[in-house]
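Section: Multi-chain targets

For targets with more than one molecule, the full set of components is provided together so that the structure can be written out for the assembly as a whole rather than chain by chain. Components appear in the order listed by the source. The example entry contains three components.
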Amino acid sequence: MSEPVLTIRDLAVRFGTKRGIAEVVNGISYDLHAGETLAIVGESGSGKSVGVLAIMGLLAQPPAAVSGSVRYRGNELLTMTPKELRTIRGKGLAMIFQDPMTSLNPVRTVGYQITEPMTLHLDLDPDSAHDRAVELLDLVGIPSPAARYDEYPHQLSGGMRQRVMIAMALACNPDVLIADEATTALDVTTQAQITELVADLQDKIGMAVIWITHDLGVVASIADRVHVMYGGRFMEEALVDDLYASPRHPYTEGLLGSLPMPGAERPDKLMTIAGLPPDPVAMPAGCPFAPRCRYTDHDRCSREVPGLDSLGANHEAACFYPLVPAHE
Amino acid sequence: MTGFLARRILQMLLALLGVSIVVFALIHLVPGDPVRVALGTRFDQELYDTLRHRVGLDKPLIEQYFSWLSHALTGDLGVSFRNGQPVTTLIVQRLPATVTLALAALFIALVVALPAGIISAIRSGSPLDYAVTAASQVGVSMPDFWAGVMYILLFALTLGWLPSSGYVSFLESPVEWLRHLLLPALTVGLISGSIITRFVRSSVLEALNQDYVRTARAKGLSEWQIVRAHVLPNAWIPIVTVVGLQLGFLLGGVVVTEFVFAWPGLGRLALLAVKDRDYTVLQGAVLYIAFMFLTINLIVDVIYARLDPRVRVS
Amino acid sequence: MTSDTDRLATKPASQGREILRALLSNKLAVVGLVVLGLLIFVGIFGKAIAPYGVNDIDIPNRLSGPTALHWFGTDNLGRDTFSRVLVAARVSLQVGFIAVGFALVVGVPIGLIAGYYRGGVDSTLMRLMDILFSFPAILLAIAILAVLGPNITNAMIAIGIVYTPIFARITRGSVLVVSEEVYVRAARSLGATNRRILFRHILPNVAAPIIVQTTLSLAFAILSEAALSFLGLGVQPPNPAWGRMLADGREYFQQDPWMGVFPGLAILVTVMAFNFVGDGLRDALDPKQKSVIESRGQSA
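Its structure, encoded as tokens over all components, is:
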């Protein structure tokens, strides 16, 4: 096993707010290897986006306070100066966001926005940058790429804009691509196209991808590994097939049960998880999911925070009473 | 783009038409007989009849309007009740002073507002930002006549550095021209600058909060690079609009400042016309000012359309 | 049936409290409110609390700067400036409120109708407003006063006319947005009459920008009144008005520079107070409020 590209240990993010300190990310750790696809799944408010923003150094500190360790190719990112970080952002680590319309500058051409990181990081002359940008536009499946170069974001459809975002992110051949809810704003067909595209590009370029999403349906087709996040912590970590076949954490069970699946046993009723996600300013003591859990003992679960216990090959769950594996 | 332009020009012409009707109506809405009121104590039957005939008040209303309008289109705005001079001449005489003051004031305003607005937006929340915001709050609320009077008190009467009123043509003496221009331009310019500062600040601030700035950061750009390449190109657009509107306002709306400094501009012409009940001059001045105002608004809209690709390329 | 959509559209009372809390947390707005409170108090009780009569002439003590007896000094006739400034507050506030009231009463319905019915009605009404917008504010006011004659009542009307288009435009803008909202379409599909929709559903939801604009327009209406009386076109002597007092002070500058300082300061403070409150309201009601609301762009 080669060295991981990204090593995250005990990453925690706290925000100072008017109501008090919000504990948004509470100690997550993982490794990411070249070519791997990791999906981080969770509801809104679980801290999944904040976690990756912290990795990229895109959180303003204050009001945020980031602690822990984030090592990219062996270098500690959290102690770097802003200047040093800027040489990595957009080059080694790239990120795409949820809404491609607002994430693209409306008054600059598509071509300009794609060549921008190249001019910045790779010191390319304008002509080479232009040619490479057109190549990238072609690579991401945009028809008539040369013509598109001079167009503006509002002239493109939603799916095409997201492709442009991907082209922008790939401009400097990053090691890691982070997609933060990148398909949420798209319709289902386009979603599938985008996820396929990224998987395709991964094979070609060999980059690792972190998919942040709340949509378990999207995850199934694209991820190697899945981490389920809740209340700023990882509740379960598994290979994708294992997770779907045999979820061990009550929260994961709830998430999967709430997915409409054709041919499932009870097609008339979707499982819902009662209650609301925890308030980051007032995190409960003990397991963050305990207040909503069907299986809680109301004693230990509410007092102690369960750590991630290994339950088998590449499968961990943070629970004192993990579910019985489905196929025994 | 041409379709947009055509529509906009049509809009302006319609507005101009409406303005002309309103301005024309001015003289007829005066309670009583305008000519009699204008002559006041200098009433003389012969003069009265002549003037009435000149102005055409003895004809039916619609005919009067079209006659007046057609004359106006050829540049003939009638004659002053007071001294018989052609109104157009009076207006043209005033133009240099008006334009000079407007441009000088705008220059001062921009020199102050652009840096102040941009920097205070970037350093939002800092002591500098508070200072700029506080100063612009005062500036926006300041009565221009009070500011003018205070400046005269300080710079002219107490320190004796600058003259307290009047206008000197550039061609006569550049130095004196500048000395006389400084205080009125400062008076209006600082107030206009405060308005523009607030606007620049909020435009830049809004641009800074957009998602595309986050994208730019994710690409590794420094804050200054982001401001230059992404924020300003977006913020320019509404700023240009405000600056244009301010210019339009400065050309005809600084009546009070012109009064305080005895600055021979169009606004003061209109004001004196009101005091003298010189309705033809008032009509001419107001019409001309509205025309300039509308023209500038049109130009601003066109520039806006050119700058914003969302409008331009559609 | 209609009550369902009513429930959807009506803002809960707790929102009002939220807005109040947001407003009060804005320090500047609080300062503004306090000053306004004081002003209104002075406006009502000015005459009673003024230490001297407004027209008490005292020639031997004329043109003095601030002293223990006369906090703001005296004017060219020996009248106490402080007392005059206090009493003049009432006039300014009166003119401001009535003028803006006029603008509201005329402008808001125009905006409602234009924005709701759209089409030809909208075009016509907005063209009319455009015509009014074609003149710089103070010029329009002066022209109106030229026709009507310069006195305080006409000044109110003139300023009111000048500020009507802004209210029309703002109301219309909001109405255009709100009429696209789901609850309006729901109400319509349930058979509510246009009038009911306008008053029950649309008006409450466009109230916010109108309230903010009212406050800001009050600021500039007062500024306009001061300008007009400075020019001699508003309040006529011997009634005290801040603008008028400033104009008089200008004549006697050489002998007593203080005469013009305090009335001007009074105008400045009043306008600032309204501005603070207006800005505070704007931030409290919607922090992302775009510049639909026009501030001093077009006034004196």
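Chain C has one domain: 41-299.
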